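Private note to self, pasted from the team thread so I don't lose it. Backbone tokens:
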């Protein structure tokens, strides 16, 4: 019992000093189980590679330059598509949230197209634009757009009417009401929409790369299927998970929390 308490206190102190350990700790039993099943050998290594096989494949693909190039292509596509989706989504969300007429006219259309999955557009986009960057960019824009618009509308409509009236009673112009009341009040929801939209966009990109891509992580995984290289498929899945966890946990989530605290929606 005392040994367990000592071990626990050591872990608390160590993890507080090195927060990354709190992130890695839950994966230790997963990797151990994976390693044990691979070593036990119920499946051939070609169908169930061990963690060391994946590490060796990672080193080989990095040495050849394949993995960095494909990863760079995927990130660049996500950045381009997400930038367009955000640039369209936030103004559209503000318009729908502020205007009753725009809400009445556009909200049913948004709900209709939101129900059509992004991958459902791939066949017709391939006919229109072929296999290439344009098709994948449109898929990412489409995927990112709806979470951003819907969360922006929710944020605008959640701003209390008293804040509008207070600003107007102080002589604020409509533009100042927008920049000093509406956008700050809706910002926590907008950030949440950005976080969700980028997450959905990342998954849509990988699916699009598998079908129409000629490079990228999704293409690498799908191309490995033809060679029967399960180890490269597993490596691609791990790279996707690690990269998105870094972006979400180290960039997007802190921005979301900081925004909520700044505008009084989250207490510290």
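Design output:
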């Amino acid at each position: 019992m005392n040994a367990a308490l000592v071990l626990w206190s050591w872990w608390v102190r160590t993890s507080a000093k090195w927060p990354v350990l709190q992130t890695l700790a839950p994966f230790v039993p997963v990797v151990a189980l994976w390693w044990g099943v691979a070593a036990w050998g119920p499946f051939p290594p070609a169908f169930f590679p061990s963690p060391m096989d994946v590490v060796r494949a990672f080193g080989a693909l990095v040495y050849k330059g394949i993995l960095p190039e494909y990863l760079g292509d995927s990130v660049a596509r996500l950045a381009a598509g997400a930038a367009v989706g955000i640039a369209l989504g936030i103004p559209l969300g503000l318009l729908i949230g502020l205007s009753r007429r725009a809400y009445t006219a556009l909200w049913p259309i948004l709900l209709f197209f939101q129900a059509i999955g992004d991958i459902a557009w791939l066949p017709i986009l391939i006919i229109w634009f072929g296999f290439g960057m344009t098709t994948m960019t449109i898929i990412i824009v489409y995927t990112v757009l709806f979470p951003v618009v819907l969360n922006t509308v929710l944020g605008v409509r959640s701003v209390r009417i008293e804040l509008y009236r207070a600003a107007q009673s102080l002589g604020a112009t409509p533009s100042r009401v927008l920049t000093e009341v509406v956008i700050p009040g809706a910002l926590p929801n907008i950030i949440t929409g950005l976080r969700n939209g980028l997450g959905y966009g990342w998954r849509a990109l990988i699916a699009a790369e598998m079908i129409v891509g000629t490079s990228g992580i999704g293409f690498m995984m799908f191309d490995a299927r033809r060679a029967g290289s399960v180890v490269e498929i597993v490596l691609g899945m791990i790279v996707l998970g690690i990269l998105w966890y870094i972006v979400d946990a180290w960039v997007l989530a802190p921005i979301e929390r900081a925004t909520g605290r700044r505008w009084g929606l989250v207490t510290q």
